[in-house]
Design brief:
- The structure is a single chain.
- Strands 1-2 form a two-stranded antiparallel sheet.
- The chain is mainly α.
- The N and C termini lie far apart (about 35 Å).
- It has one domain.
- It has helices at about 15-30, 50-55, 65-70, 90-105, 115-125; strands at about 40, 45-50.
Length: about 130
């Protein structure tokens, strides 16, 4: 058994993963000042919401308008899409939400995992 979500196929996510993205977005909306990142469950496995957003970073599928609104209301600058009728892809939504998860974790006092990993790699390279 793997801890990975189903892969994208030519930039397209299975519908079940798109639904999981929606669940992760709802979990983000309900996230209080807790230190730990919210989780979602997919096929009996537990995933932090940031993992779901990361898995969708290359997805070219168009996001439904209700999800677009949930993502864009969190932005500090107006969002302008590049597609017809300003369509947003899951890739764009996932990148925005991934940044927001990292910001929330930092604001709640959690260590910046990227910075910790970089420091660890630097220590290993020094010998």
């Amino acid at each position: 058994m793997t801890n990975a979500l189903p892969p994208l196929h030519n930039g397209h996510a299975p519908f079940t993963v798109q639904e999981l993205f929606r669940e992760a977005l709802y979990a983000f909306e309900e996230w209080d000042a807790e230190l730990t990142e919210p989780i979602v469950i997919f096929e009996g496995r537990v995933f932090p919401i940031g993992h779901v957003f990361e898995a969708m970073r290359q997805c070219s599928d168009i996001v439904p308008m209700n999800i677009v609104g949930a993502v864009t209301e969190r932005l500090t600058k107006p969002w302008e899409g590049e597609g017809p009728l300003d369509q947003m892809t899951f890739s764009t939504a996932a990148r925005v939400m991934g940044v927001l998860v990292r910001k929330r974790l930092l604001a709640n006092g959690a260590p910046d995992i990227v910075a910790v990993a970089e420091r660890s790699a630097e220590r290993r390279s020094r010998g």
